[in-house]
Amino acid sequence: MNPTTKKYYALLSGLLFFFFFTWSSSFSLISIWLNQQVGLKGTETGIIFAAISLVALCAQPLYGFVQDKLGLRKNLLWVIGLLLLLTGPFFIFVYAKLLAYHLWLGALVGGLFIGATFFAGIGALESYTEKVSRIAGFEFGRARMWGSLGWAAATFCAGFNFNINPDINFWVASGSAVIFLLLLSRVQVIKADAMGQLEYGKTDRLSLADALALLRLPRFWSLVVFVLGVSVYGVFDQQFAVYFAAQFPTPQQGNEMYGFLNSLQVFLEAGGMFLAPFLVNRIGAKNALLLSGVVMAARILGSGLVEGAWLISAMKLLHAVELPILLVAMFKYISANFDPRLSATLYLVGFQFVTQISSSLLSPLAGYGYDRLGFADTYLLMGLAVSAFVLLSCLLLRDTHSPSPSLLQPATK
């Protein structure tokens, strides 16, 4: 890497690390916190996650269009950073008390904060990183790897902290946000004509009509069909910690072991993020997307079929294979098939937004299924749904060509 590439790679990797560290500290044990500290059952927890998803699906199209309009400016990232800073006080002094006072009011306020900060915020940060990576000349997956490491580092200690005092995790989250803001202040906006280069000669200003034109493209809706299928993984993960912790003699032991498992999974995921670009470049974005869907279906079906903590853990660890391939392939598929100016809009709408729509609809149903059918049978139904959508996507997704080379790399002869 040249010095400019190294600088942007280091800073953006750091932003991803501390964003995910903040997110994991406050959210990786949220279902256990809602169950053991707040006293919510599966259906009520499903309502909480549905509220988060509803807010996120409203914020994500807005974040995507705003970030595409801003180009490489950092205004939106500053807003997200300030919200991250408020994480600790919000969970301790606002969210827990509101949920105890009135479930629906707490769900609404929590959905507004968590959805806008984390579930929409990560899409904005990832799409910003992906744009800079194409200009500066590094692979997005290798920067996103540091986000996984941030989540893993926080989760490793989350179980211990939770058993001492759950509030510790929330204060750690706000401390991590301070470092995020310091790093953001060091990121210099790339020169003004860089976005013009990224747009491959299109220098006209992006308009709302450009974004809405996506809705008339059949290939956009083909991508949506695929995302509807794989979005089930978010619903599957929401209350998995409760299911896993129930495999142990005491809740405290289950909490600690889940922290270890989640940390191991995300460390493996980080390695997957480093290796995923090699695989995706070799087999193509479409085939990589389908492969991630197959692994996801196997993981969810397997979780419903196997018994015991060890085998359930093995199924959980497949997420470290599936997610890196999915994220890297998604950005490469978007850049190969759509207008690069709209990459943030496409990622936040075509992937994140659709994921949250699915989550908002399925979260209460999943919670009801956990209460009535049990976790295992509900997982089997989820896995069958993913399998059906992946099979349909084999016909709908387009074969893609390789994206253009990075714009700040030295020319080769």
Automatic annotation (TrEMBL):
One term of GO molecular function: lactose:proton symporter activity
GO terms under cellular component: plasma membrane
NCBIfam families: 2A0105, PRK09528.1
Keyword Zinc among UniProt keywords: no
Residue ranges occupied by any Major facilitator superfamily (MFS) profile domain in the UniProt entry: 9-401
Principal cellular location given in the protein's record: membrane
Cellular localisation: Cell inner membrane
Descriptive protein name: MFS transporter
Keywords: Cell inner membrane, Cell membrane, Membrane, Sugar transport, Transmembrane, Transmembrane helix, Transport
Family membership noted in the UniProt record: Belongs to the major facilitator superfamily. Oligosaccharide:H(+) symporter (OHS) (TC 2.A.1.5) family.
Entry keyword Cell division: no
Transmembrane residue ranges: 12-34, 46-64, 76-96, 102-125, 145-162, 168-185, 220-245, 257-276, 288-311, 317-334, 346-366, 378-397
Stored InterPro entries: LacY/RafB_perm_fam (IPR000576), LacY/RafB_perm_fam_CS (IPR018457), MFS_dom (IPR020846), MFS_trans_sf (IPR036259)
Source organism superkingdom: Bacteria
Membrane topology reported for the UniProt record: Multi-pass membrane protein
